[in-house]
Amino acid sequence: MTAAVEISDLHKQYGSRVALRGIDVRVDPGTVVGFVGPNGAGKTTTMRILVDVLRPTSGQVRVLGEDPRTGGARLRSRIGYLPGELRLDGRHDVASLLDHYVEISHTASVSRHDARAAWRTLAERLGVDPTRRVRGLSKGNKQKVGLVQAFVHRPDLLVLDEPTSGLDPLVQAEFLTMVREVRDEGRTVFLSSHVLSEIEQAADSVVVLREGRVVLTSAVEAVRASLGQRVHLTLAGHVAAAPFVGLDGVRSATATHDGADTRLTLDLDGTPDAALRLATTHTVLAVDAERPDLESAVMSFYTQES
């Protein structure tokens, strides 16, 4: 199966500054892949190389089976791109601008008429007023226009750099629905975001970038599962954490005292059976379990790496 995106040993330097240090990334067709990392990690540089806004220093890139440096307009028409720093021509109203995007990006599989109808549907879903002048739009409304132009021609691949920047929570939720619809149709999404809860809700897998290197590639659920789970026990009386440390399946244990009771927190990397057996030698007042979210898992990974 030809990958939607295949990056091999990709390097990029800006003068003496190294942005990418030999990264390898594969994005399979019909998947949503989250590209995450701190500012300056190299996410935007990578995405710009995918759409031939930047040229790599060395390495190999294939997008939908083609080299973006030689794929030309035919390849670009199969990609929907939302840059992280969106710039729109402020002289037009929204409708005229989106009509222009339709003219330059429609494909043989989507007629101009259908594409114009599609942008109006997308604009309505995202709450875009097509009669407004672009120069008078807020950052969030400009972002909505950028999303419409990226989605409108039903591209095989969407490359989205911080797509929900400036959007309110309701529009963010609608965007995530649109991403799932794209995946359900067998198309592909490669998106970066600082909002890891979005990646968690939408992505099948995650690629973590740090200082220009890929430090983790994994299914989202596997990243979360790597932290195990956390169990909170409320026990009657003063109970020490020490007997729980070192039990089978227990990574760490801490105890805080609230009046006559103890709040015991157990971080697990296996079954809680041994810890629960010991806990039942005391009076158990409450049990609460939680699994870490993606943000907690990624932050834990960064801490371990540093």
Automatic annotation (TrEMBL):
InterPro entries: AAA+_ATPase (IPR003593), ABC_transporter-like_ATP-bd (IPR003439), ABC_transporter-like_CS (IPR017871), ABC_transporter_ATP-binding (IPR050763), P-loop_NTPase (IPR027417). It is found in: Cell membrane. SMART domains: AAA. GO terms for biological process: response to antibiotic. Keywords: Antibiotic resistance, ATP-binding, Nucleotide-binding, Transport. PANTHER family: ABC TRANSPORTER ATP-BINDING PROTEIN, ABC TRANSPORTER ATP-BINDING PROTEIN NATA. This is Putative ABC transporter ATP-binding protein. It comes from Mobilicoccus pelagius NBRC 104925.
